[in-house]
């Protein structure tokens, strides 16, 4: 198991290892999003399941992850919200 805060770094690392599952933040830092990173991984034939973690819960974002054959889609609270508000 390892962690990366930047999409470009994650792409390099992921191409060098074999994983069964990835917990991917859609808003990962870097020039590309977690959705774009997953697309790039699919292009290099990575057969890995993605669980997307995000505070974005609009239908367009959800559909974009389904199109990538995501394993699951988990919604987290935005950093500026308290869990007691929900």
Give a quick precis of the structure:
Helix content is 31%, strand content 17%. With 86 residues, the chain is α/β, with parallel strands linked by helices.
Please describe what this structure looks like.
There is one protein chain. By secondary structure, the chain is an alpha/beta fold. The protein has a single domain, classed as Response regulator (Rossmann fold). The chain has helices at 7-14, 34-43, 59-67, and strands at 21-25, 49-54, 72-75. α1 runs parallel beside α2. The mean pLDDT is 80.
Relative helix content: 25-40%
Q: What sort of overall outline do the alpha carbons produce when their principal axes are compared?
A: globular
Question: How many helical elements?
Answer: 3
Question: Overall pLDDT, averaged?
Answer: 80
CATH 4th-level superfamily: Response regulator
Low-confidence stretches: none
- The CATH architecture classification is 3-Layer(aba) Sandwich
N-to-C CA distance: 31 Å
Q: Could you state the order of secondary-structure elements as H and E?
A: HEHEHE
Number of domain modules: 1
| Oligomer classification | single chain
Structural class: alpha/beta
Largest sheet: 3 strands, parallel
Strand content: 15-25%
How do the strands line up in the largest sheet?
Answer: 1-2-3
Rg, nearest Å: 13 Å
- The total count of strands amounts to 3
CATH class placement = Alpha Beta
CATH topology: Rossmann fold
């Amino acid at each position: 198991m390892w962690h990366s805060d930047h999409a470009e770094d994650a792409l390099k690392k992921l191409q060098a290892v074999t994983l069964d599952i990835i917990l991917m933040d859609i808003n990962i830092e870097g020039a590309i999003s977690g959705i774009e990173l997953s697309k790039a991984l699919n292009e290099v034939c990575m057969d890995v399941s993605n669980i997307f973690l995000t505070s974005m819960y609009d239908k367009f974002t959800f559909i974009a992850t389904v199109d990538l054959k995501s394993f699951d889609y988990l919604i987290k609270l935005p950093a500026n919200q308290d869990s007691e508000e929900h």
